[in-house]
Amino acid sequence: MPPSGVLIWTPLLAAPFVGSSLAVVIKQQCAHGSFATFVCPTCGTSVRLLDFLPFSGLSAARPRCTHCPGASGWFQPAVALATSTVAVIGILAARTPPSAWINCALGWALLTLAWIDASCFVLPDLLTLPLVLAGLGVTLATVPDAAFWHALGAAAGYLALRSIALAYRALRRREGLGGGDAKLLSAAGAWLGIAALPSLVMTAATTALACACLAAIAGRSIRATTAVPFGPFLAAAFWLLWLYGRAWHLT
Description:
Structural class: mainly alpha
Number of strands: 0
Helix content: 55-70%
Distance between the termini: 19 Å
Mean pLDDT: 83
Largest sheet: none
Number of domains: 2
Shape: globular
Low-confidence stretches: 53-64, 247-251
Strand content: under 5%
Oligomer: single chain
């Protein structure tokens, strides 16, 4: 195997460390509305993010805070497993080590956003807005000739969902789509370009509707007012289109 064939798998080595950190970010965002300060979920002590990394204060097998003997249960290992799965998928879809890292970094960011939205119905600006800038940066670095269409996609993605949200609120007198969904679609436009947005929205909406139908069949009460997080479906469609739906690839 050539050296590049070995190096392309390096994101998998980082995945457990990334997963441990993301588990803390998710938990802090949902528990405290912010991840600026990290607090041990067991003892409430403010801790360093380093304390939550594997082989530091916590380990992937038995996560623990350095300030108390309490274990954080299944959550952190589950996130670490999810980030490792994302890494494998991203690597298999890559052609070079740099593209593997980009695939995985995007997948990890989207996994974090999807998990937070599914847990507490919010898509933090601190994650969505840098994702817009990152998409434009990757475009400029890899396909600069397409930069205009990706910038247009970022603007169109935000305006499309924001307009729908405002119209829904005006008609129904309640929120239908959050501002975070519009910013996430803006990020998708920045990464994928404006031409990919119709397919992305259709895929996400169809998948969300299918999941709602399955939930209803399983006996869950689904009403017109039932809140369903749209972020996870947008994130999944976004990442799959990035991996498999592009007409161009990173070199």
